[in-house]
UniProtKB/TrEMBL annotation:
Claim: Protein biosynthesis is one of the keywords in the record: yes
Gene name per UniProt: LOC108741988
Entry superkingdom: Eukaryota
Bias (Acidic residues) ranges: 100-117
The entry's keywords: Elongation factor, Protein biosynthesis
Signal sequence extent: none
Protein name, per record: Elongation factor 1-beta'
SUPFAM superfamilies in the record: eEF-1beta-like, GST C-terminal domain-like
A Pfam family that the UniProt record links to this protein: EF1_GNE
Location of the region described as Disordered in the Swiss-Prot/TrEMBL record: 68-119
Native source organism of the sequence: Agrilus planipennis (Emerald ash borer)
Domain annotation Elongation factor 1 beta central acidic region eukaryote: ranges: 108-133
Length: 228
């Protein structure tokens, strides 16, 4: 049957008849067939289609994330469903006045309550998902950096140079091991390691701060840079 038929009373009647003894349209679990059909309907069936309304409310209670994980299912042809019973297709017969008054006082299908219950279930699932996601620790991007800090000459006090370098404090910066590495003519360079949080520490800013100790530092180079 065409999708457009589901927007007519005749189409909903066929759907109601098909779901009279079934929970889902394809198999024993919700599938994409249920989602596609639900989207084709557009709005909840009336209370005079109890089986279709039950199915609609149940499928609507799933979140969009859950719906995307439904299996594909096997397409069905509602046009082959058994003819609807008089309760579903025929116009209601005239009842005695007393029966009409009783029917007016009793909501046999409770459509409003079912819609409210489905909305409540959906809100609870969304809240549980949001709570679970908020408790998941955020991944902090870090980098391990080895810096070569070069002095002016062999008379530079390397211990004082290192003391000045380590005096730099920045949120997200942790200094590590260091050593002196010969570069020739009796000159050593300071090779020092640090770990930085990428979102908090700019490598360019860090090197600029080191070069501010101009009495000791001639230049700063990045010897190694690795993401952690």
């Amino acid at each position: 049957m065409a999708v457009g038929d589901l927007k007519t009373e005749a189409g909903i009647t066929q759907l109601n008849s098909y779901l009279e003894d079934k929970s889902y349209l394809s198999g024993y679990q919700p599938t994409q067939v249920d989602i596609q059909t639900l989207n084709s309907i557009g709005k909840a069936p009336g209370a005079n289609f109890p089986h279709a309304l039950r199915w609609y409310t149940h499928i609507k209670s799933f979140t969009q994330a859950e719906q995307k994980n439904f299996p594909s299912g096997t397409p069905i042809s509602l046009g082959s469903a058994a003819p609807a019973s008089p309760l579903k297709t025929a116009a209601p017969t005239t009842k005695p006045q007393s029966e009409k008054e009783e029917d007016d006082d009793v909501d046999l299908f409770g459509s409003d309550e079912e819609d409210e219950e489905a909305a409540k279930v959906r809100e609870e699932r969304l809240k549980a998902y949001a709570d679970k996601k908020s408790k998941k620790p955020a991944l902090i991007a870090k980098s391990s950096i080895v810096l070569d800090v070069k002095p002016w000459d062999d008379e530079t006090d390397m211990k004082e140079m290192e003391k000045n370098v380590r005096s730099i404090e920045m949120d997200g910066l942790v200094w590590g091991a260091s050593k002196l590495v010969p570069v020739g003519y009796g000159i050593n360079k300071l090779q020092i390691m640090c770990v930085v949080e990428d979102d908090k520490v700019s490598v360019d800013l860090l090197t600029e701060k080191i070069q501010e100790f101009e009495d000791f530092v001639q230049s700063v180079d990045i010897a190694a840079f690795n993401k952690i």
